[in-house]
């Protein structure tokens, strides 16, 4: 196939054999969020470029080099969203749904776009489920976000494989004082810093803490620590969060170098990381952004949220083999009909059964075929039972009920009794 007719590098098809696990993941999250009282919001995938520049920050990797930006036909600069927070803030402001201190607990799911170098766990189109909470400024809500992800990891069976890293970036005032101290310290080591860090020192000094360069990391060992610059408000907030995590029994490590790659954070930042995925080990990340709404033209409105990467979490479920049995089996019953009359009767019978058992996964063989080939398909479908409808069965108004997984002999079941019989044989989800 010519290259221009292939999918774009880093943008993947999610194939039919993969979608059951995606739906299991998304369904588990959606149910959990319903139970915690979060409401779904859906934003467009494309926004004005300015929105992302203003919120994520001009001097960030995302805005400097990773955005898919293009001119619309009428000359507006538009960008495929690289993340969800900016658009969510835009939406709540535009619709006035956080006005007057109204609390909003929102979540979204969908594709995000970043022109990064693709590798395992890192793609150019990837998918996030994100949460954003507005108008709650206490550490209790920061804790709730972390507690619900902890529950999610438990439900998915991956709790032992993830670790929580926490930090506080403080209020913008305390961060300003820390930035000054850090710049003063790093300036005395300027010639020993790697090139990227030298550049960041001028443009976005906190991001130097994030460096992967070993020499710069060594210098940073003696750098001033953010924790020593936190004002009382930030310190109390952070202590409050830690006390709540301790109360629930969620382990965490404080990582003073955790600064995050987006500029809007203040106070709490956190990441859930794993060593099961290689280099791209952050499966969920977020924090507080108390200044963002105001910076985007709204009234001061505290905000906090996070987003998780669906590809990475699905990869984890595969790696740790946490794939529930019911999603590896997609079919409960497979109906094989032989001959034209049987096919018509089979269709009507299948619909009657579906009326009575709406959750039954009943597949009807499409297209004629020999006895042998239909059975092969029934077996391959993974179904527990085959229903057989041929001339003999038609004459007696019964179906042959054949266990496919070694659960006994074939029986004849009257059409009228079929749904009741299936209900006793199959435990439905
Ligand atoms: P982020 O750290 O940029 O934060 O992304 C969140 C998560 O999305 C990452 O931890 C990772 O699991 C996933 N992710 C990011 N980039 C890629 C990629 N190229 N390929 C695959 N997965 C990826 C945000 O986006 C913030 N909006 C989170 C937030 C919400 N903060 C507050 N509210």
Give structural attributes.
429 residues, alpha+beta, BirA Bifunctional Protein, domain 2, Rossmann fold, 8-stranded mixed sheet, 5-stranded mixed sheet, elongated, binds histidyl-adenosine monophosphate
Can you describe this structure?
- With about 425 residues, the chain is of the alpha+beta class.
- The protein contains 16 helices and 16 strands.
- The strands form three sheets. The protein has an eight-stranded mixed beta sheet.
- The model has no long low-confidence stretch (mean pLDDT about 95).
- The protein binds histidyl-adenosine monophosphate.
- Histidyl-adenosine monophosphate (HAM) binds next to strand 6, strand 10, strand 11 and helix 11.
């Amino acid at each position: 196939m010519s290259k221009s007719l292939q999918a774009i590098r880093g943008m993947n098809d999610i194939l039919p054999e993969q979608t059951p696990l995606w739906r299991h993941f998304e369904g588990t999250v959606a149910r959990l969020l319903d139970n915690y009282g979060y409401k779904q919001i859906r934003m467009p995938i494309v926004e004005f470029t300015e929105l992302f520049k203003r919120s994520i920050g001009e001097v960030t990797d995302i805005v400097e080099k990773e955005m898919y930006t293009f001119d619309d036909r009428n000359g507006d600069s538009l960008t495929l969203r690289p993340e969800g927070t900016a658009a969510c803030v835009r939406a709540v402001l535009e619709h006035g749904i956080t006005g007057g201190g109204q609390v909003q607990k929102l979540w979204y799911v969908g594709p995000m776009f970043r022109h990064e170098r693709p590798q395992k766990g890192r793609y150019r189109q990837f998918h996030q489920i994100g949460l954003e909470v507005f108008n709650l400024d206490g550490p209790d809500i920061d804790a709730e976000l972390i507690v619900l992800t902890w529950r999610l990891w438990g439900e998915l069976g991956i709790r032992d494989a993830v670790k929580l890293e926490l930090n506080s970036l403080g209020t913008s005032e305390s961060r300003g004082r820390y930035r000054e101290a850090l710049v003063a310290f790093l300036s005395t080591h300027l010639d020993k810093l790697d090139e990227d860090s030298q550049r960041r020192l001028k443009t976005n000094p906190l991001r130097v803490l994030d460096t992967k360069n070993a020499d710069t990391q060594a210098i940073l060992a003696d750098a001033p620590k953010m924790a020593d610059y936190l004002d009382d408000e930030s310190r109390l907030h952070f202590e409050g969060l830690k006390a709540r995590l301790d109360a629930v029994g969620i382990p965490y490590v404080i990582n003073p170098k955790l600064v995050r790659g987006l500029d809007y954070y203040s106070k709490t930042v956190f990441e859930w990381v794993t060593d099961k995925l290689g280099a791209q080990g952050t499966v969920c990340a977020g924090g507080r952004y108390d200044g963002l709404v105001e910076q985007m033209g709204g009234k001061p409105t505290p905000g906090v949220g996070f987003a998780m990467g669906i590809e990475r979490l699905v990869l984890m479920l595969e790696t740790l083999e946490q794939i529930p049995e019911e999603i590896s089996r997609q079919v409960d019953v497979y109906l094989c009909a032989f001959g034209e009359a049987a096919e018509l009767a089979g269709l009507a019978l299948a619909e009657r059964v579906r009326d009575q058992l709406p959750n039954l996964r009943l597949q009807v063989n499409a297209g004629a075929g020999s006895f042998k080939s239909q059975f092969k398909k029934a077996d391959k479908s993974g179904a527990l039972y085959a229903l057989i409808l041929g001339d003999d069965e038609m004459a007696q108004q019964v179906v042959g009920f054949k266990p496919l997984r070694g659960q006994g002999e074939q029986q004849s079941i009257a059409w009228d009794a079929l749904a009741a019989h299936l209900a006793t044989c199959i435990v439905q989800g």
